[in-house]
Amino acid sequence: MTDPFFASLNPEPRILRADLEDTIAAIATPLGSGGLGVVRVSGPGAFSVGDKVFRSTTPLSEVPSHTLCRGILRQGDEVLDDAVAAVFRAPRSYTGEDVVEFSCHGSPLLLRRVQAACLQSGARLAEPGEFTKRAFLNGKMDLAQAEAVAALIACRSEESRRWALDQLRGSLSALLESLRKRLLNLLARLEASLDFVDDEVPDLSRNELSSAIGSLEKETESLLATAPRGRLFRDGVRAVLAGRPNVGKSSLFNSLLDADRAIVTETAGTTRDTLEESFLADGLPVTLTDTAGLREGREPIETEGIARARRALIASDVVVWVMDASDPLTEEDRRALAWGDKPAIIVFNKSDLADPGIDRMAIEHRARQSLSHPRGCVFVSARTGEGMDGLRRALADTASPAGGRETGEGPTLLIERHVALLREAADALAAARQASHSGEPDECVALDLRRALDALDRVTGRGVSDEVLDEIFSQFCIGK
């Protein structure tokens, strides 16, 4: 089977739009200094624009597709850079149109000059996501694949990168197409029985109908079950370090980040404001917040720091309650623990200073009794690194939702629009199954099946309005 990412040498345009007649240009690499930068030009006049701004031994309009040419980039009579132009002829390009990409040195000033030269030579500035939008309109990819481009650009973890690339290569589209074909076949048989006399079309029994709908519903629900995990690895989790003063929250913050970010002293109450950084815990993106110690404030600035700590607790997904293993579970600890009711990990820090003979299980049991939602307990030393890998695993395990397919068993939903539409499809299938089971007229069952079919089609872009497309692609960056 041909990989959909490299297929469609002769695409069929889905929608005819006047703006496809324009030639567009934009910087396609992030702004900022670098070794290389790319300016992309796409549309019917791409080679005309290219020949005006790029001089080589052969005009770009005359070279074969998929050719690299070295030459000089110019703006009028001024030489801008020594560069390489990549030529892609329609339909064998990312957008399905004639495309030229100029690779030059990655100075932001230079890239803006090259872009300006292209605009002066007949192109217009591309809108956000317009290159990918043209790829969709020209049949190079469906809408689910196009949205995977944005997900791939924004991925924050190895898992989300793999899932987004899998979707870009067509895994979700293939699964939805399989569901669609079965649903369409079922709907056709049901509606044929309504349109023709009984002796012309084989009867579709109610048991057969309910079973077939139930199978489609189960597969749709199975796909939806991957959404919480996809959302977690896409957006990450917010974790807060909390506890009484001087238990080593800031030391733990630095140790988890493997960086000297928070000020650490022996004086209790040093942290007055919240401090936030991101890192990966067993592949899971975590935004970690260090907070002031929870106690009754002794001065106005400490009181404000404690108030900010409480606001961070409210906004968090997971709380890491930190205690001192060398002085476990004081009355001040119990008062601090009473301030939160989120999923929590209990961390006994300074384990290297604790009495080797302490009963860790008894201490853990007493701490767990003080929390509404204890998920795990670890003993660590921020100073020596003992137990830190276990804490990272506990963070990932505590945040990860249960259910859904395991990695590698099928596509994982990453995009909220897809989740909402598949929920709509699953609800329509449930209604159709219930209508069939309860003996309602076939017309009612068919109506629900059509609602499910419409929701599946909108995921991949069949019949999606221009307004919806504009909204989706407006969230992309310019140049993609």
Molecular structure report:
- This protein is α/β, with parallel strands linked by helices and 480 residues long.
- It has 3 domains: 18-142, Probable tRNA modification gtpase trme, domain 1 (Gyrase A, domain 2, 2-Layer Sandwich), CATH 3.30.1360.120; 165-226 and 408-460, tRNA modification GTPase MnmE domain 2 (Four Helix Bundle (Hemerythrin (Met), subunit A), Up-down Bundle), CATH 1.20.120; 233-399, 3-Layer(aba) Sandwich (Rossmann fold), CATH 3.40.50.300.
- It is built from 16 helices and 13 strands.
- The protein has helices at 46-53, 108-120, 130-137, 143-154, 158-168, 171-195, 206-224, 227-235, 249-257, 300-315, 331-337, 360-369, 388-399, 416-437, 442-460, 466-473; strands spanning 24-27, 34-42, 54-55, 67-75, 78-88, 99-106, 124-125, 237-242, 275-281, 284-290, 318-324, 344-349, 374-379.
- It has a 7-stranded mixed β-sheet with strand order 3-4-5-6-2-1-7.
- The radius of gyration is 29 Å and the shape is flat.
